[in-house]
Amino acid sequence: MELEGEKPKYGEPRKYDPTFKGPIYNRGCTDIVCCILFIICILGYVAVGILAWSQGDPRKVIYPTDSRGQFCGQAGTPLETKPLLFYFNIMKCASPMVLLEFQCPTTQMCVEKCPDKFLTLLKAYTNKEDFKYYKNFCKEGLEGLILSSGLCPAMLTPSKPFTRRCFPALDQKKGGEITVGNNSKFDDGEGNIRDAKDLVAGVKNATVVIEARQVVMKIFEDYTQSWYWILIGLVIAMLISLLFIVLLRFLAGIMVWVMIVMVILVIGYGIFHCSMEYVSLKSEAGSNVTLKDLGFQTDFSVYLHIRQTWLAFIIILAIVEVVIILLLIFLRNRILIAIALIKEASRAIGYVMSALFYPLFTFALLSIVIAYWAVTAVFLSTSNQPIYKVFNETACDHSRKICEPANFSTSSMKAECPDSKCLFAFYGGETVYHKYLIGLQFYNVFLFFWCANFVTALGQMTLAGAFASYYWAFVKPDDMPAFPIFSSLGRSLRYHTGSLAFGSLILSIIQIIRVLLEYIDHKLQGTQNKCTKFLLCCLKCCFWCLEKFIKFINRNAYIMVAIYGKNFCTSAKDAFFLLMRNMIRVAVLDKVTDFLLFLGKLLIVGLVGIFAFFFFSGRVKAFENTAPNLHYYWVPILTVVVGSYLIAHGFFSVYAMCVDTLFLCFCEDLERNDGSLARPYYMSASLHDILSENKAVEETEEPTQSSPHQPDDQDQKDQDGFHRCFSEHVAETMCLIDYPFRSDVLNLLPITLFTVKAFKRSLQCFHH
């Protein structure tokens, strides 16, 4: 209990103000410094994009190019009849940098056919026929054959074309011996006899890049074959989402219970279907292979022929089903109150119907941000240029200097060093642009996060301002603006661009730190240092929690900015203190509503996902001739599922934002007014009934609870007990980080028991 004269722990409650009529219109610009910084960064982002588009060439990722940057087999060029790419020394492709730069550090040239026999440069020089054949794999302008000149490869090995590139024709005999051209050893052209297995590393790294490109091309082809069906699936998801929102407007109570029952039924059907697949694979050969032994496969359909995959699906869906049922049982009284709050939100949306279509504007802006980031990233990654340097046999002052092969024969360097050659050295660049290319990629990713978070924040503040206008209108809709959404959007952009940029900047910094932690974790996967792994795991967990907390604070801060027009920090503090003064209501009312809305999203995704699975997989005979032929049928299914979730999230986010805004306004209304004729509540009679029901439930569980304005000792003990219980629960949950996970699916059993225990502990906290 607070002492007399002592400042309240969570700030002073709002005082009655007869002049306050909702969102303040006479306001000024906030967080101007951050607004200026955001504009400067956006201008810099545009400059990076222009620079990348002028330097990069996305065709380098798809088509084979020689060391001069020419595309093999391109029509209308001298290389039209040479569609295959040949590597002078494939063993240099064993460098790990190949996977980062998409190029091997060796001379590459376009050829008509791949070599089909062993031959060294020295041996070919002694035989006219071999020399004639060897010249097909040498650079033009061949005069004297000197190995160090770099005009010809040191050796040729039997190769086969793969994705328009020549790779050694490696084979593995029964004993595990690696051969190339039926030989286990070969002459590398420099007087060394080497094993065929020495070629494996180079071929493996090169083929990883090529296979990645091939997978991308196959996915692209699948999209070209199924894009209209994907659009139909997304349109269906949009119509179902819109139908649910409209029905919620008029039949909120019935629709919520329908959603709950259908989610349980859909997940139950998923368990049944996975069980049938698991049983049907029992007699099939190879179905008992473990996921660990199978490893990563680019063709995901392979996993569907493994029993362990379906067992994992069964366990995951069963856990989700049990958790949802337990939550519904223990929170049944709160769900009834949350349904009433959703009804009130439906009434608010009825006065602001344009809010239902605002997510389309957010989708459009996010699509622009994502497209700009993706295109800029591709152009930046293909900005490397072939670098040529001077190579010579004798000492020369110009050795290893950069040169231009086009005019090298007439240059001063050639005149001073007659035996020098201008040869390919590496891919990259030594200009200021190429030196800071990694920094530009990092800047591209960071601005992507910042812009995406800014667009999301703009939507949240716009909706909050519109719904706050509804709540604080004493006579609805006469006291509301004619166009609440447009009025709120105008205020947000005109006065609070800086606050939006400030909040999204904080969130973006945390997200980029998480990306860096994931990158470091990926780099340290080969190490066995358990201490390092534990620290990384703790850091990733902490920053994940911090990101969720910042999103929660930002969301409520934007609501306060939309209402009062103050800067971001002040609004965040006011929102946080207001929520802490109403902690019990936040935990048991507002979050239960979020849970019900999440079930709605889950239902839409489940319905559309099941339909997409049966359609694209061809498991229904009625769709066998209609469904397109695809390389990976999971590509359109995954796209439809993710797209359906985003669409459902967009529509239901309007409800979520409405509930959050009404909740904060409701708490403010309780502190400002007392329901008397002099200080009447702005809340509707139905919302006041929700308060009465909630208060009755709290009094049933906590008989000595008093007014929300002046908490007594019991109130303070309840809130302290809730905080202490919740802290202990978080500490228990953190212990799961150090759990020794294994790849065995049966290991999910102890995790399941831990999850049930965690939820039981959470419910105890909420009932505290």
Write the layout of secondary structure elements.
Blueprint: H1 32-55, H2 59-62, E1 84-87, H3 97-101, E2 108-111, E3 119-120, H4 121-125, H5 128-134, E4 155-156, E5 159-162, E6 165-168, E7 170-172, E8 178-180, E9 185-187, E10 193-195, H6 198-280, H7 291-294, H8 307-330, H9 332-351, H10 358-381, E11 385-391, H11 412-416, E12 421-428, H12 432-435, H13 437-471, H14 484-495, H15 497-523, H16 530-564, H17 568-581, H18 583-616, H19 634-672, H20 685-701, H21 713-734, H22 748-766
Antiparallel strand pairs: 1-2, 3-4, 5-6, 7-8, 9-10, 11-12
Helix pairs in contact: 1-10, 1-13, 1-15, 6-8, 6-9, 6-18, 6-19, 8-22, 9-18, 9-19, 9-20, 10-13, 10-19, 13-14, 13-15, 13-16, 13-19, 15-16, 16-17, 18-19, 21-22
Question: Mind telling me the C-alpha Rg?
Answer: 33 Å
Strand count: 12
Structural class: mainly alpha
Globally, the shape reads globular
pLDDT under 50 segments (min length 5)? 1-5, 95-102, 144-148, 701-717, 726-759
Q: Specify the helix fraction band.
A: 55-70%
- Main sheet: strands, sense, barrel: 2 strands, antiparallel
Sheet-strand content, in percent, reads 5-15%
The CA-CA distance between the termini, in Å, is 18 Å
The strand order across the widest sheet is 1-2
Mean pLDDT, nearest integer?
A: 75
The number of helical segments is 22
Give a quick summary of the entry.
The chain has 768 residues and is mainly alpha-helical. It is built from 22 helices and 12 strands.
